[in-house]
Amino acid sequence: MNDQERLDAFVRDALAAGRTRVEIAAALQQAGWPQAASVQALERYADVAFTPPVPRPTTTTSPREAFLYLVAFSTLYLSAWHFGSLLFHFVDLLFPDPAEGVWRGEFARGRLRWAVAVLLVAFPVFLLVSRQILRELDPARAGGVGRWLTWLTLFIATLVLLGNLATLIYQLLGGALTLRFLLKVLVVGIIAGGIFGYYLRQLRRMDPPEPAG
């Protein structure tokens, strides 16, 4: 019997003996077991008043679940990018740069049309698929694809926020801050911060807090 099997057997026997999850986690911590391993072992059994302990179903990712998550996150990235591009265009219209030539204006108009077109397609799909995921899938038992994409999105949003802050500081130190630049920094911060906050809450639903030791 390997360590994982011994740990699972101990948790099962302790739950069957009426020990609380907090007591079991504390005992495992005192015995030197890593907290993450203890939490995972406890999460394998449902928190219901029944003896013997009831195992949870194994978390797996079905092809349909993977499809829904991939479509949802792909359309999220497209929507965020082109929504930011659309807002950037409005900032450019409000505060035009005299150095930009006619070709720049034609390019901006093409960018505006493309941003609107992508948003009209991608954002409704994102809303519909996200609604379907919330209705059909239990966040606490989300499969690997959902968890990985959620963590990846948090990682990307974190990088964007850090890069946005670094760019702001760089411009501030160079004395080149303008209202146009500040508005674009604000746009990026709101979009990336909103995505980060939303998926951080989703991740907390997938990974409930660890029991106190």
Helix content: over 70%
H/E series: HHHHHHH
Main structural class:
mainly alpha
Summarize the biggest pleated sheet.
Answer: none
- The whole-angstrom Rg is 24 Å
What proportion strand?
under 5%
Please work out how many helical segments DSSP would assign: 7
Describe it:
It is elongated and about 75 Å long. It is 74% helix and 0% strand. It has seven helices and no strands. It is mainly alpha-helical and 213 residues long. 15% of the residues are buried. The chain has helices spanning 3-16, 21-30, 35-43, 63-94, 102-136, 144-173, 179-206. Helix 2 (21-30) runs antiparallel to helix 3 and helix 4 runs antiparallel to helix 5. The model has no long low-confidence stretch (mean pLDDT 84).
Please summarize what this structure is.
This protein is mainly α and about 210 residues long. It has two domains: about 5-45, no CATH class; about 65-205, no CATH class.
Task: Note the topology.
Elements: H1 3-16, H2 21-30, H3 35-43, H4 63-94, H5 102-136, H6 144-173, H7 179-206
Essential attributes:
213 residues; mainly alpha; 2 domains
